[in-house]
Specification:
- This protein is of the alpha/beta class and 359 residues long.
- It contains 17 helices and twelve strands.
- The N and C termini lie far apart (62 Å).
Length: 359
């Protein structure tokens, strides 16, 4: 049996896509992030507003993870939580940490939950007031993917007086001992010990961006290995190739981890499983997760290998001071927030959760 020849228009499309994938081709589709306005700028705390200043309703603050750009919330058309929220009429903001350099090696978790995130929340409130919002004192809905969810939870627990209306976490690990991908790091730490690893990371200033990018690609090894075949069999599928390039662009832009924060993550979160105890400690200060009173929505991805369902769902065991709603949706770690199925399975649940807060 012979394979039918491609129609002339399909052949032309394949040729255009093949050229676009070359270094000189310019890509399948132009990278066009959603328009934003900077409303606040401090070191590692640039707050951007995507919506009109006078947009109605409680504002949303998107909190990215460490070692990831804000593009996770604005990957491309049809895969942009930002665009979805703006289209729904919500006031939408994001906190951008910017690049992480050697001089930032002393940044720790406490810098993010005690200083950066609260400053971003204050900036959102100030911008809402300046824009004549109906209720500038209304609380802020935090949405955090992966470690962005960790920062959001720690922020609310560290200072319960902050005007946080709700917290949504997407693929946020809680019980690291239920996460298979952390086993190699725990095994290495058990053999080598924490101090030699911490010393090496500190000398480097952190985990360099190329290593972060490589480790993320390693979690999707099948995708990387089958990439040539995927391209060859999808040369006429412009949408599929555009999705592939958007993910490649996102991974290529990943910054590194600051040394102090990575060492805290390795020692406290991975080795000591501190979040699962409900009483993690940073810089000698306990941050009781039971102090969180804002309603929480926690997502787990059905095919997420970086934050498995049992690892994520342990959140119901530690957040004893508030109501927690959970949802398991299709998708990988990135897929649950920006995958092709997120618009059907993740974003509507967020909308429903936020709508219920007004009841």
């Amino acid at each position: 049996m012979t394979t039918p020849a491609l129609a002339p228009d399909r052949l032309r499309q394949a040729a255009r896509n093949a050229w676009a994938l070359t270094p000189l081709g310019g890509g399948i589709e132009p990278h066009a992030p959603s328009a934003s306005t900077v409303v606040h700028q401090d070191p590692h705390c640039t707050v951007r507003r995507y919506s009109r200043r006078d947009a109605a309703g409680a504002p949303v603050l998107l909190v990215p993870p460490l070692a990831v750009s804000i593009a996770c919330y604005d990957l491309r058309p049809g895969q942009s939580l930002v665009a979805h929220l703006v289209a729904a009429g919500r006031p939408v903001y994001v906190v951008d940490y910017g690049p992480v350099r050697y001089r930032d090696r002393a940044l720790g978790f406490e810098d993010f939950f005690a200083r950066i995130a609260p400053a971003a929340i204050a900036a959102v409130r100030a911008d809402r007031a300046a824009g004549g919002a109906d209720d500038p004192k209304s609380g802020v809905d935090l949405i955090g993917w992966s470690l962005g969810g960790t920062i959001s939870l720690l922020t609310a627990a560290y200072d319960p007086s902050l005007p946080i209306r709700s917290i949504t976490t997407l693929g946020t690990p809680i019980d690291y001992h239920r996460n298979p991908t952390s086993k190699p790091l725990r095994a290495l730490g058990a053999v080598v010990g924490h101090r030699p690893m911490a010393t090496a990371v500190w000398a480097l200033g952190g985990i360099p961006a190329p290593l972060v990018q490589l480790s993320y690609r390693a979690t999707a090894l099948q995708r990387e290995v089958t990439r040539p075949w995927f391209i060859a069999t999808n040369l006429t599928e412009t949408e599929s190739l555009a999705q592939m390039q958007a993910i490649d662009r996102f991974m290529a832009a990943m910054p590194g981890y600051p040394a102090r924060l990575y060492n805290q993550m390795q020692r406290h979160l991975i080795m000591d499983n501190a979040l699962a105890t409900g009483r993690p400690s940073f810089a000698g200060e306990v941050v009781p997760l039971a102090q969180i009173t804002a309603p929480v929505l926690a997502f787990a991805g059905a095919s997420d290998v970086l934050a498995t369902e049992p690892c994520v769902m342990a959140i119901t065991d530690v957040l004893t001071g508030t109501r927690v709603r959970t949802a398991v949706v299709p998708g990988s770690h990135l897929g649950i927030v920006a995958g092709s199925s997120a618009a059907d399975h993740t974003w509507p649940v967020i909308d429903d959760f936020h709508a219920g807060l007004a009841d």
